[in-house]
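Here's what a typical entry looks like (ABC transporter substrate-binding protein):
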Amino acid sequence: MTASTTRRSAAGRRHTALAATAAAAASLLLLSACGDQTDAAIAKREAQKNRNVNAPLFKKLPKAVQDKGFLQVGSDITYKPVEFRTNGKVVGIDPDLAAAMEKELGIKLNFNNATFDTLMGGLKSKRYDISMSAMTDTKERQQGIDSSTGKKIGEGVDFVDYLNVGVSLYTQKGKTQGIDGWETLCGKTIAVQRGTVSHDLAKDKSKKCESNDAEAIAIEAFDNDSEAQTRLRTGGVDAVSSDYPVAAYAVKVSGGGKDFQMVGGAPLKAAPYGIAVPKSQKQLRDALQAALENTIKNGSYAKVLKKWDVKDAAVEEVKINGG
């Protein structure tokens, strides 16, 4: 190989290296211009874009939340009319109330779908900042106690209470099979959503049946209320129990109102829904309480409840741990 050939080869290598460096630089510039396109990054950019430092309660938020510009909200988005999806969009009572609170706080509340029985764990692992998911404020949840076993499973949460609801029963329309309340469920089969107050109530009532020498209630627990409704619609169970707003909505809309009927009279165990906040986040808890209080004062709270036909569930006072 001649010297000139060697020089040409070296020059070629330098040219190739320079071209590769230029290409890499161009790629970096392109990525920088486009930004991270992951869902989390997009949500963060949208939150920053919508952040309003002049909102009435922005300065009441913890500094870390102010800087972030959003809260990750854990929610079971299958619970009509409290939260559900329509054409991919999260809608319902909770999302509408959250939107009203956003205007007071100046940040975004991002709803993340999960099964109900995993929400408390998601708060513990910090996957979610808060949970807003038709969650009943109970002493057990406040203390981090599993209601089924009585065992301590976490530090518990504080609740910011925002609706007052009870538990209802419904059956197939025209096929009540004599069910007119919980006392007539002995020996029958009921569907519930796993980990809910309805689930706990069904267990308690079943034990009462057995203590009275009657047949136990057969309980089928599902990941979400929609599955429980499907089970009833197809005749697989005799009744479903769920929170009153959910039961009333199902009776009203399923099959154009022809699938189900409410039984058992007034809802049982009236108790508040609460926004669950880790006990370590008292400043955030208090900011959320103030935001809800503002929505009541400015009328947006009443508008949401009227829209979803749950005016009777309104609270007069936003309490902390009122359950």
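Strands lie at 70-75, 84-86, 89-91, 108-113, 130-131, 157-172, 189-193, 218-222, 239-243, 260-278.

More examples are in the samples folder.
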